[in-house]
Hints:
A: alpha+beta, Alpha-D-Glucose-1,6-Bisphosphate, Chain A, domain 4, seven-stranded antiparallel sheet, 31% helix, globular, B: alpha+beta, Aldehyde Oxidoreductase, domain 4, Aldehyde Oxidoreductase, domain 3, seven-stranded mixed sheet
Amino acid sequence: MKLSxxxxxxxxxxxxxxxxxxxxxxxxxxxxxxxxAATGPDAYEATLKIGVAGLKGTYTGKAAIADQQPPERLxxxxxxxxxxxxxxxxAAIALTADGDATRVDCEADVHVGGLIxxxxxxxxxxxxxxxxxxxxxxxxxxxx
Amino acid sequence: xxDANTTPYVGRAMKRIEDPRLITGAGTYTDDLRLSGMVHxxxxxxxHAHARIKKIDTAAARAIPGVVAVLTGADVNASCGFVPxxxxxxxxxxxxxxxxxxxRVYFVGxxxxxxxxxxxxxxxxxxxxxxxxxxxxxxxxxxxDAVKSGSPLTxxxxxxxVAYTHNVSGGGNIDEAFRKADRIVKHRLYHQRLxxxxxxxxxxxASYHAGEGALTLWTSTQIPHLIRTLLxxxxxxxxxxxxxxxxxxxxxxxxxxxxxxxxxxISHLAMRLHTxxxxxESRRDNASATIHGRDQIGEYEVAVKNxxxxxxxxxxxxxxxxxxxxxxxxxxxxxxxLVLTGCYKIPAVKMEIVGVYTHKMATDAYxxxxxxxATYLIERLMDVIAQELKIDRLELRLKHFPAPGDxxxxxxxxxxxxxxNYAAALTKAKQLANWDQLLKDRAAARAAGKLxxxxxxxxxxxxxxxxxxxxxxxxxxxxxxxxEISAKVTVITGVSPHGQGQETTFAQIVADRIGVPIxxxxxxxxxxxxxxxxxDTYGSRGTAVGGTAIVMCIDKILTKAKILAAHLFxxxxxxxxxxxxxxxxxxxxxxxxxxxxxxxxxxxxxxLPADLEPGxxxxxxxxxxxxxxxxxxxxxxxDVDRDTGQVTITKYVAVDDCGPQINPLIVEGQVQxxxxxxxxxxxxxxxxxxxxxxxxxxxxxxxxxxxxxxxPDYILGSTVTPSPVNxxxxxxxxxxxxxxxxxxxxxxxxxxxxxxxxxxxxxPLTPEKVWQAIKSKN
Lengths: 144, 778
């Protein structure tokens, strides 16, 4: 599933970019994030407790950041699994200066499997958008 | 007794004997069983369509309080054999399917591990705590892609996705037929994948008596006897130490005509853990890990003359088998080949069926099994031919019907249809539908700008399965009738009814023929400790094959009873008259002997002729010499909403000929349920896997089945053409509705859309799809 999302964060690009690769900021801003730890340069392990389509579950997974071009773009790849199934994919994130703020454009390719696909695929896109909105709102809150 | 002496039970629309217990909640289903010490299993299933299993960590699951064991394929597979397939064809390439995955999963829902706990909810929680490390592998989820070169392989070790190729050719020379044709009508049809969705999903309880080395398995199945034949080879318990019980079964429709991995696995666990084990399938598991039906795509060509005469039929079908073979997976598409010509004289036929593996759940028999596919394609083709040649679709059909005098009618597909009067059924359906008025109403509706359509299907199907030479594991049936000392009658049948009503219909047959009140007859089934042998219930065989075995038993009992009656009358058997439950000997004596007296004599056994055994019991095996071929005509009338694409069935007429009807109420119920299945198939249902092989129709929010308000009032009728294949003359009716109705409704919708120039759409005809089609023509 391809998802395109945009958001605006009231901070300059350099700060937004720095926040996006800061494990401590990410742990506080990713919805449902219970643990997040760096396991190497640009590699993280995390535990998330989230609900998709009424399927609440705890997911454990890995994420890696590649193609970093501060403060303009980065690519995030992720894979997680939990009781309701698995999620994996990648997201190309581009930061554009927009006055004092920064526009964040995200092009994601997401694959879900198992129960999430079987009973929630109709709702995965909406759920992903909500999670992204929540994330950027939290991020904006952290930076202001 | 008054009843038995007046009108016969057979032919009466009696309410079912089994219903009061079922509708008052007093039936015992598998999940109702509570055995001492019983533990509960939950199964972890793969979320991947194809992946290598790198590691399974069960430590966290095992640490949960209440968990008894957590086991993987490495622990159990060597003790559980392989999931069996009874069908065989010469070039069949079959993967080995173990009860839990080995080092690879090959469909979403593939069982990976099992957790056993003292409580079902603890077991369910435990499977979430099992950590499986998967390495995803390339997926093929589309059968047409699977046969292309370079496709990912469902089973890399087989080297191909093609399981088998089956060729049917018969009748005259097909090439000559196509050379002589004025026109070749071509059509591509997709028969979508369906999920059976019985109200009761599957369930198993197993109990092992270590001292006796004996296993009892309760399972929600249609085939306790076939399981008793096949399970011993899987788990190493001999057949004569194995008892299989099918308790109340809440719907089967072919989905429970199978030997499933869980039946072997749970049996093994009961043996291994020395305690009874229960596993009950969830609705979600049912959607992903119980067989699916249909899923055939084909290209069809018909050679026709300009006057409509059909010279030949060619087809190439790809059947999507899913990822492995269940009991009859490869055989089902070949049934399509057997009735490809429908109820028509088509002189030459050539069909190629390619069975293909994909990373999906296995397909297998689902209500109608192969015949709905054949009927849908031939009945759509008849309409397409009529439309292209601008000839009347009923005339086209009538022109190709064999006449009543043509029966037994040999077909180009190699069958011999037993009996039939196809035109009579068509004529009756037209009368019931008020055909001429329908045409006027449609014209008026169209003139008013409405989309109104009439669809017809004239079908024939294969029932009463079947002659043993045509069946993988014998097609006979066994029965036993015993008159007890109290003159009550116990009937034991080897068929395993689960909604077909044979506790009632067999009692009707027995009560009439033996001459006792129906209340004195009990029909037992579904327990191999009681019904020692049987070939179970599928393929509309229960009454035609199983009922005949019962009739044979009755004949034996009456013969024996007359010998004792003659002895008591001090005369010879030819002077004994038996009528409606009483024995007399006019001209010899005025004495009248009734069953209670005679039954007492048989068991007290103080006054028997020297060569007569005590007791009054007989058993029989019936071996049918042919299938039976029920037929009929269905007419559907629909309105299509131009603005929403919604299809509404405004009238539905079905005339089915299943031979003489033992119980017209049960026949009606079977036809009604069958048509409901077809309404689902035409308007709502499709099992969908995405390109990653993910099942996206895993619950009723995404897999729509018809609800009460989607079902119209049916106008049902019948004609009666007895079958010469069995002494009851009955043909079978369990699948007829599903076979006749799908093309009738589909043809009606296409007829409604014809003025817009829409000539074909694949099923299901959902509002969105119909609306898109209408919109594309605006």
